[in-house]
Amino acid sequence: MAEVHSMTTTAFELAGYKVTKTLGVVRGIVVRSRSVVGNLIASIQIFFGGKISTYTTLCEQAREEAFLQMLAHAGESGANAVIGVRYDATEIAPGVTEVLCYGTAVFVEPSLNK
Fold it and tell me: Does 7-33+64-110 carry CATH code 3.90.950.10?
């Protein structure tokens, strides 16, 4: 994976920095399925109610992987930051979900107006 500065934000500006170059949209995409064992454990958790840790863990892992892919994509484009970061998830088949993390790759420099 390419090394990239991990300055990211959901905002469209980064406090203390000015965007000097916009490099375009970057993304990371992960497609995951639930395992039979994971579904069985989740079914038991659903039966008793409360937090469904099996699915929570699966979702967090997919989001983290998509985020890291996005950062690698940004690094490959020469960015040192990503602004406007968003996540999207879509069920593309029963039990199969796509997780997308995207944002705008930018090159930023410290703002003189701190």
Answer: no
